[in-house]
Design brief:
Helix content is 30%, strand content 45%. By secondary structure, it is α+β, with helices and mostly antiparallel strands. Strands 1-2-3-4-5-6 form a six-stranded antiparallel β-sheet, with no helix packed on it. The chain is elongated and about 75 Å long. The protein starts with a helix and ends with a strand.
Length: 105
């Protein structure tokens, strides 16, 4: 086996590995940047002029929303997601709560 060919082959492999590592790191950084919290607020006006406000926040693995109606009553929903399942808690306008657990087996 020719030694110079073997060295060139090894050098090519090392360069390829470095390029793939740098490319993967860039993709990881882009993915991390896109996973930041997102917030959204909407105000809805009905035909009688009454207004409702809705706030939604998404973060990696979590989602929270709250709605406040025209008479000041509010409700909320909080969801937490993991690889093993999710949990959602709803709170009604009178403070009553309900929780739903989903397990992924």
């Amino acid at each position: 086996m020719n030694t110079s060919t073997s060295k060139k082959s090894r050098l090519s492999s090392v360069l390829l590995a470095a390029v793939l590592t740098l490319t993967g790191s860039s993709a990881l950084l882009l993915t991390f940047d896109e996973a930041q919290a997102r917030e959204r607020t909407a105000t809805i006006t009905g035909s009688a002029g009454q207004m409702t406000q809705r706030n939604v926040t998404h973060t990696p693995g979590n989602a929270t929303s709250s709605t406040t109606g025209p008479n000041g009553n509010s409700s909320s929903r909080t969801t937490t997601r993991t690889t093993s399942g999710s949990q959602t808690t709803l709170t009604g306008p009178k403070g009553q709560t309900s929780t739903v657990n989903v397990n992924h087996s």
